[in-house]
Amino acid sequence: MADFSPGQVAPPRATAQVETKESLIASDLTIEGKIEGSGHVRIAGKFKGDVNVQGNLRIENGARLNGGVKAKQVVVAGELDGNIESASRVELLDSAVLTGDVKAGSLTVAAGSKIRGHVECGWDASESAAPRKTNGKGETAEPRELAS
């Protein structure tokens, strides 16, 4: 038997959907300047300048970026001539050409991609990225206590 008596009915919940916008630099555009913001950026053309976004950056195949990058996630299919800093994830697709340093939480490099630069990945912000001292034999020199 169904109960049709009036009771307290919870109002429908409004779902909090944050729409992150994506800005596109089209393949027929060449732009020089600086990009800053909270959304995602996709570059299909040519851009000269730094990109600093809280969202993701994607450099399409055939596109070129000359400048530094700070973004949550970076996917490179085109060319990047500049450093990537503070990304949680960087992915270089098979057509990618990267000339610059990478500092990221994780790095995925596809066969066929090209990279020239210094790479630091997998380090937490709390861990020191300072180079370790070696003992001249390629082994890490551990600090020793001296006997008194």
TrEMBL record:
Q: Record's family?
A: Belongs to the bactofilin family.
Instruction: Extract the PANTHER family matched here.
Output: HYPOTHETICAL CYTOSOLIC PROTEIN, POLYMER-FORMING CYTOSKELETAL PROTEIN
Q: Which superkingdom, per the lineage?
A: Bacteria
Where is the stretch described as Disordered? 124-148
**Native species:** Luteimonas marina
Which one Pfam family would you cite for this protein?
Bactofilin
* Basic and acidic residues: compositionally biased ranges: 139-148
* Identification of the protein by name: Polymer-forming cytoskeletal protein
